[in-house]
Amino acid sequence: MAWSALIGSMVLALLAGSLFRLSQELGVPALRMFGFWSLVAIGVILARAAARQQVAEARGRLEETLRGLGPGFLAAEAGPGLLALVAPAGVLALAVEDMPQYGRGPLARRRQERALERARGAAARAAAILARAAAEAPQVPVVPVLVQLRRRAPGDQGPEGVVVVNPEGIPVLAGRFASPALLDEEARRRLADALAAGLAAGAEHQR
Asked: Rounded to an integer, what distance in angstroms lies between the CA atom of residue 147 and that of residue 81?
C-alpha cells in the first residue's frame, strides 16, 4: 500500500482523536461529528489504496502472463485498457476491465456491458485493419476477449461471442491459435504495429 495513504490515514487518526477529546472537554458536539467524519475518510483512503494495489498487482500478472507466451506471440498496447495479441494463427483483441468481484446491481451490469462492447469494438477495428492487409494475413480469425482482472471469469465464450477470461486463462486461449502458422514472424510484427496504431486511434476517436 502507498506510503501516502498510510501517512494520510495516520494524520487523520490523530486529528480524529484530538477532535473527540476536544469535544468532550469543551462540550461541542460538532467537534465529535468532525472526528467521526475523519474516521470515515480514513476508511475511504485505505479502501481506495487497497483497490489501486489490487489493480496494479493484477496488471502485473497480466503482463507477466503475456511475456510468458513465448516468441510466437506479440502483444501490443493499443490504447487505454486495450491490447492486441498477434498469434501465429489469429489475433486476440483484449479489453482489460478491473471491476471488482463484489460489483453488483445495475451500475455493475452497465459497466460489464460497456467492457464487452469495448472488446467487440476492438475486434471489429482489428478485423478492418487486417482486411486492408489481406495479402499478409489471409483468413486470420479475430477474437474479442474481455480480460477481467478482479472478477472471476468463466474462461469461455460469453455474450455475443466475447471470450471472458482472467489473466491466468490467457495461455490456454492463446494456445488455440498457435497453429497452423498462418503468419510468419515478420508478418506478425508488422500486424502488431499496425494494430497498435489503428486500435489506439479508434479508441481515441470513441472517447
From this structure: 10
Mapped onto helix, strand or coil, the DSSP state of residue 147 is: strand
Residues 6 or more apart whose CB falls under 8 angstroms from that of 12 comprise 38, 39, 41, 42, 45
Q: By the 8 A CB rule, do 96 and 149 touch?
A: yes
Dihedral sign (CA 104, 173, 185, 64): positive
**Model's pTM, two decimal places?**
0.70
Strands (E), 28-162: 74-77, 82-87, 90-97, 142-148, 156-157
What is the enclosing helix (H) or strand (E) of 53?
helix 29-67
Q: Please determine, for residue 68, whether its predicted confidence score (pLDDT) is greater than 80.
A: yes
pLDDT tens profile 143-173: 999 998 888 877 666 656 899 998 888 998 9
Q: Give the helix/strand (H/E) hosting 56.
A: helix 29-67
Closest CA to 50 of 144, 150, 165, 151: 150
Rounded-to-integer distance, Cα 26 and Cα 16, Å = 15
Angstrom distance (rounded) from CA 59 to CA 96? 9
Q: Which residues are bridge partners to 75 per DSSP? A: 85
**Closest by CA position to 66, among listed 90, 84, 88:** 84
- Give me the residues paired with residue 157 across strands: 163
